[in-house]
Design a protein that fits this description.
Radius of gyration: 20 Å
Bound molecules: iron/sulfur cluster
Helix content: 25-40%
């Protein structure tokens, strides 16, 4: 498998990434990202809910739902804060029972992969793929938001397989972006993700193999997901899956269980992005590039030495902070953001992978896909009188 198969090109300038420069980590220590607005942004996830903003989509009820959706993920993240650990975001999960002393043997890695995928789906994973551990994507060091210190990444490189999972984010909630309400799709994604990766890692440990469950800590998820065949890379800097478009959250399990790996997939996303720019036009702060993939970096939150579409994380996070909630306008307007239970959505996706993609894009706009649904209309639908 070449990097081009996975949708990017590595140049001689390439350097592995330190988590310290992730824009969220920078929002704790770098004055170019940290501000009174960013501090207030984080407080909205924890404090009294009726004071932040009085607008449709930002009421106490909207924040109540968003913050409740994060609750399970928060419990895992916060339970070891007194040990300077935030598991799932700064550190891999440790809430696991010991590895069983006896091993269950598989006839082949393919058999093991097939079983692991069935189990992952049984635990609720919406998508699952396997790739080799590629050390280029491991963080060179982790960063603690609590103590403001960088420290070694402790994922052992002899855990040679990575199982990558994806949790779908709720389509109807994402249609209400920008709103605090839509942030419930993000929180639910992480809470489900924590359940899936912790359970899957424990299952593998119960079989007698080492396994570490991880979310945003430890490694860059998107290149691993591309290598594991979960989707294609896109202009908005996200993974595009066939099943849910860009609406996924990614998790990973590192293991020494020998597994057969998957291959990158292509279904026309790159070609589609080359002729479209809807996400770049819709971004309120111009954080998404409108040109060709390049090695240019907006700032140190971008990877060095990778030719691809890169997003300006500083501008993006600045908008989140100003909004008092995460934004996903680019996700909402993206033409592959559809409910693929519907036959016409599947037909549109097929068209998007052909030379008629321009027609699909035109029709998509004419029919108003990607338009915002008012949060109060979402509430009226889920809580009918
Ligand atoms: S999340 Fe919002 S601010 Fe960030 S790139 Fe997408 S549209 Fe722009």
């Amino acid at each position: 498998m070449s990097d081009r198969d996975a949708g990017y090109e590595i140049t001689d300038e390439f350097e592995p990434f330190s988590q310290k420069y992730d824009v969220f980590r920078r929002s704790f220590w770098d004055e170019r990202v940290r501000s009174p607005k960013s501090e207030r942004f984080y407080r909205t996830y924890r404090e009294t809910l009726d004071q932040w903003r009085r607008a449709d989509g930002f009421t106490q009820r909207d924040y109540a739902l968003r913050n409740a959706s994060w609750h399970v993920s928060d419990l895992f993240t916060e339970y070891k804060e007194d040990e300077d650990r935030r598991e799932g975001f700064n550190d891999a999960f440790t809430l696991q029972r010991d590895v069983a002393p006896e091993r269950v043997e598989f006839d082949t890695p393919a058999e093991a992969s097939s079983e692991i995928k069935r189990v992952a789906r049984g635990f609720g994973a919406d998508l699952v793929g396997v790739t080799e551990l590629d050390p280029r994507w491991l963080y060179t060091e982790k960063f603690s938001d609590l103590s403001g210190t960088a420290r070694p990444n402790d994922i052992p490189e002899d855990l040679g397989s990575v199982i990558v999972t994806a949790q779908a984010m709720d389509y109807e909630l994402i249609r209400t972006v920008p709103s605090a309400l839509s942030g419930a799709a993000t929180g639910l994604g992480y809470s489900h993700d924590a359940l899936v990766v912790l359970s899957l890692a424990q299952y593998i440990r119960n079989l007698g193999y080492r396994a570490i469950a991880s979310m945003n800590d430890s490694a860059l998820a998107i290149p691993l997901a591309l290598q594991a065949g979960l989707g294609e890379y896109s202009r908005l800097g996200l993974l595009i899956t066939k099943e849910f478009g860009p609406r996924v959250r990614l998790g990973k399990v590192f293991t020494d269980l020998p597994l057969a790996t998957d291959r990158p997939i292509r279904f026309g996303v790159k070609e589609f992005c080359e002729g479209c720019g809807r996400c770049a036009e819709a971004c309120p702060v111009g954080a998404i590039p409108s040109g060709e993939p390049s090695t240019e970096r907006y700032n140190e939150s971008n990877l060095k030495g990778v030719r691809k579409w890169s997003v300006d994380g500083e501008a993006c996070f600045g908008y989140w902070a100003a909004q008092n909630s995460d934004c996903a306008i680019c996700m909402r307007v993206w033409p592959y953001n559809k409910d693929y239970e519907k036959w016409w959505a599947r037909a549109g996706r097929r068209l998007a992978g052909t030379r008629l993609r321009g027609f699909m894009l035109w029709l998509d706009g004419k029919l108003g896909f990607g338009d915002r649904v008012r949060p109060r209309d979402w509430w009226a639908r889920v809580t009918p009188s």
